[in-house]
Amino acid sequence: MNGMEISKAYYEAFGKPMLEEFPGILPYAAAGLLGSGSECLGFDDEVSRDHDFEPGFCVFLPGEDIVDRRSAFLLERAYAKLPKEFMGLSRSLMQPVGGARRGVLRTEEFLADRLGADAAGRLLSAAGTAELSPDTAPLTDREWLTIPEQSLLEVTGGEVFSDPYREIARVRAALAFYPERIRLKKLAGHLLLMAQSGQYNYQRCIRHGESAAAQLAVFEFTRSAIAAIFLLNRRYQPYYKWSFRALRGLEKLSLEAELLEFLITSGNDDEMAEEKYNVIEGIAADLIDELIEQNLTKAVCGDLEKHAYSVNDGIQEAELRNLHILAAV
Q: What pTM was computed for the model?
């Protein structure tokens, strides 16, 4: 069983009966496994169990105006008394670096750690009165552009086991993915970086005899290509160490993972450099085909730079469109 399955089994065996002992809290408490950790994305394996891996789940509580401090404290004590051993795993007596990942959490504190206090407060206030979408979420463009993508995935990934109050559901719907204007701004920036690093600077570095610089160009191209592919799939990109694994599971352009891995793991002698440049151009062509398929570009060429500016021109909101094309990356 993976970590998510273990968490759900632990909740069903112990968490659900625990919550039923708190009838005043039960209508407002959400339970699930969200946040950081490979198990929240289904990426955990045997290696993952060497740290911060234990049976457990999250209980999310609304503000003190709904669930008072004493009630939350009593629930925390009950959670602490749950079995310490389950399916051969032990619950840690110490919190991991960065704070508690499991247990009883206030929703606002969980969100503030990932979105910032102001954004979390506004989002919860809006979620308390209406169903939300990314287009109606009360986040500024600056917040959408600067909140780490991994943080957005920590809120929207994982699995919710129970959510009768629907506060968590409304928040997750609001952050499901970037609004289209933000997607386009970020996509335009990454396409431009792909053009600069891969289509232009890689060969120039090779001609200068700068093999290390050429490889840095490859890394920049790969980093932006992965980001662009996630954007084209309308999926948040996970933390970098899981990016390739997640990339292989995407609906669109997942086959680029093998080509990108080749680019960053091969050398830069003359013969290999020529092959790598051809691979770069092939990846660029594949992304251009997808841009055309999604009707995101009006450029007609193989130059990613021209497509980047065309994507940026497609942003309807003038203020965002007129920001520097790399403002979102």
A: 0.93
